[in-house]
Amino acid sequence: MKPIFVQLQCAPGKTYEVADALYASELVSELYSTSGDYDLLLKIYVESEEDIGKFINDHIATIPGIVRSLTTLTFRAF
């Protein structure tokens, strides 16, 4: 399993709805509200052979209220 970090920018007033939908999906390992350009930061684990772009597109980006996403791939933990 690979950890992937995704930052989400939500439509005004939709951050809590997006967070609730993510929590209900049981796909995220960790979920945080953040300051700055993005409203939410989530950590997900995907199988090594999983197509990350397709996973994000199919399971995360389809949640209503998301305006923009930024996905960060990880290589190793220190």
Strand order of the largest sheet: 2-3-1-4
Beta-strand percentage? 35-45%
Q: Which parts are unreliable, with pLDDT below 50 for 5 consecutive residues or more?
A: none
Largest sheet: 4 strands, antiparallel
Output the structural class: alpha+beta
**Overall pLDDT:** 95
H/E element sequence: EHEEHE
Global outline:
globular
Radius of gyration, taken over Cα atoms and rounded to an integer in Å:
12 Å
Beta strand count: 4
Helix content: 25-40%
- Intertermini distance: 17 Å
Number of helices: 2
Supply database-style keywords.
alpha+beta, Tscrpt_reg_AsnC/Lrp_C, 78 residues, Dimeric_a/b-barrel, 4-stranded antiparallel β-sheet, Lrp/AsnC ligand binding domain-containing protein
Q: What does this entry show, briefly?
A:
It contains 2 helices and 4 strands.
Q: What's the topology here?
A:
Layout: E1 2-10, H1 15-25, E2 28-33, E3 40-46, H2 52-60, E4 66-73
Antiparallel strand pairs: 1-3, 1-4, 2-3
